[in-house]
Amino acid sequence: MASLHDLTITALAGGVGAARLLRGLMRVIDPAQLCVIVNTGDDDEFFGLSVSPDLDTITYTLADAVDHSKGWGLPEETFRCLSSLNRYYPSGTWFGLGDADLATHLFRSDLLRSGQTLSEATASIARAWNVRATILPMSNAPVRTIVHTEAGALPFQEYFVKGRSEGEVREVELRGIATATAAPGVCEALMAADLIILPPSNPIVSIGPILALPGVRTALQNTAAPIVAVSPLVAGKPIKGPADRLLGGLGIEVSAAGVAGMYADFLDTFVLDTQDAGQRERLERQGFQVIVADTIMSDIAKSETLAKIIMEYPHQRRNKKGETAKGKKETGKMSSF
Ligand code: FO1
Questions:
Q1: Which residues line ligand 1 (CB under 6 A)?
Q2: Confidence at residue 336, expressed as pLDDT on a 0 to 100 scale
Q3: Is residue 324 situated within a structural domain?
Q4: Quick one: pLDDT at residue 319?
């Protein structure tokens, strides 16, 4: 029987929610078997620096270097540079770039200016942090998530951090998506995986931009790997972030089942929080396999427990295309620990 360490896992990730699950997963599988495809719709430029918040959150997490209290950035940060920048940009220092974190943005910007792709820069940063997992940006082309509210069209960080996710959401635009392509390795990692995980990331602004890239949805429909998603909503509310406001603003049902419906064309297994166990039957009627578990990963032990539950579950591929592509796959019930 295959060991968990033999399995190739590909995850689609945003920032903090994904990082919590990946942190637990790192204790269950060999990190070298993990490939994480990361949203770059949240990226922006500050003071001429290219900042990729979700890539950094995932990198710092997989390096076990993230500030666990915030879920992003580095621990024991100081903000002396940002305070000094306030002299030159009096209204431009609302995004909390710490002194140590700035080194990452300086390095990335340097590599990009010298002609490297975001994929190459991301790999160099991961190497410098001794991360053994593969981290792929979703695209090397700039895609920017713009949230349209009554206050106007706001780049994601302005909506989320500066604007505290206030205002009714009218539209979410993925600026640049029409000409963007998936980064090298992205579709290949989906096709080659033994299991694909969608952690509890925001379905609109974290997973949505990845799915919108040409070829990604088709790869998810065609891969033989079973696909499991963890609900980002517990009792209709996200643990963190504006997923409920974004879903509601776009007219999507604000519930775990509403999120599962967004992935219905490729998803096999959906992880519901115990508080949402009442939605189990409805999801099963829709053809999903359902795991009911505690999804609130308030500490590393809970992250590890959830990761183990996901890895040990005997996932079945229900998607017809997947079955014909590589034969029906089953994971789980493996003997390694
Ligand atoms: N999140 C905040 O809530 N406030 C901040 O000031 C902030 C700064 C920041 C700097 C670097 C970085 O990599 C992430 C940062 N984040 C901050 C997190 C980020 O805004 C979001 O968590 C993601 O974009 C959503 O996934």
A1: 14-16, 42, 53-54, 56-57, 72-73, 95-97, 101, 157, 160-161
A2: 28
A3: yes
A4: 60
Model confidence at 323: pLDDT above 50: no
Q: What CATH number is given to the structural domain containing 144?
A: 3.40.50.10680
Residue 291 within any structural domain of the chain: yes
Percent of the chain having pLDDT more than 90? 89
176 CA from centroid of ligand 1 (Å): 22
Residue 210 backbone phi and psi in degrees, to 5: -65, -45
What domain range is 177 assigned to?
4-43+117-328
Residue ID of nearest Cα to ligand 1 atom 3: 161
Q: Does residue 178 belong to any structural domain of this protein?
A: yes
| Amino acid identity for residue 257 in this structure | A
Q: Under 8 Å CB-to-CB from 91, ≥6 apart: which residues? A: none
Could you tell me if 9 and 34 are in contact, meaning their C-beta atoms sit under 8 angstroms apart?
Answer: yes
For residues 264-288, give the mean pLDDT. Answer: 96
Distance 72 CA to ligand 1 centre (A): 6
Q: Per the structure block, which two tokens stand in for 210?
A: 């990845």
Q: Residue 66 Cα, ligand 1 centroid: separation in angstroms? A: 12
Q: Spell out a b/e string for 260-271, using b for 16 or more CB atoms within 10 Å of the CB, else e.
A: bbbbeebbbbbb
Pocket test for ligand 1, best of 95, 101, 104, 122 (most atoms within 8 A of CB): 95
Assign 240 a pLDDT band (cuts: 50, 70, 90). Answer: confident
Q: What are phi and psi of 137, to 5 degrees?
A: -65, 150
Residue 4: the pLDDT is 64
Reported as a pLDDT band with limits 50, 70 and 90, residue 320 is low
The total number of structural domains in the chain stands at 1
CA 59 to centroid of ligand 1, rounded, Å: 14
Q: Are 54 and 40 in contact (CB under 8 A)?
A: yes
Does residue 229 form part of some domain? Answer: yes
Q: Is 203 exposed, middle or buried (0-12, 13-18, 19+ CB in 10 A)?
A: buried
